Amino acid sequence: MYKIAIKKLLNNGVGILPTDTLYGLVGSSLSKKAFDRIFKLKKRNFQSPFIILISSLDDLKLFEIKVDKDTENILHKYWPGKISVILPCDSEKFSHLHMGTKTLAFRMPDKKDLVDLLKKTGPILAPSVNRPGEKPALTIEEARNYFGKNVDFYVDEGKLESLSSTLIKIENGKIVVLREGAVDKKTI
User: Fold this and answer.
1) Is residue 101 assigned to a domain?
2) Which secondary-structure segment (H or E) carries 143?
3) Count of CB atoms situated within 10 Å of the CB of 39
4) CATH number, domain at 124?
């Protein structure tokens, strides 16, 4: 199901994939070309970096991110899962990704086929399939209405019924919920 997607992602392509929450407009997070295409397609503002899907904590090293023991313990508690975590990233190499915020948001999905894809492609950008102010696509048909032939592939997994991921950041060893989503903040 993912062979074409993997090939395209390894060659700067962008497309639509089911994630562990919603459909994502995906591209390699290590490809500036893929980032630029997604940014243009999403018509995104410059203060809102994309969530990056990773297959393991080791992937954070690709972004020059080192986590302390407290943060690592929190990540192990909630990952894999539907929680995206904002982590500090002050590397100039990734300034196009963090857009001056010096932070990046990551999620390790709890979806085996997606994690297997990530192990082959490396981390991917995966914002929801919509434009600012519009509702996320729950089906491939809705995704095609947004992006048509402007993407390189579509992977259809039927209707996805999840909320977007819950977004948190960790400050001084404490969790701050920035956006409640698929995981109820009472359980965090």
Assistant:
1) yes
2) helix 140-147
3) 18
4) 3.90.870.10
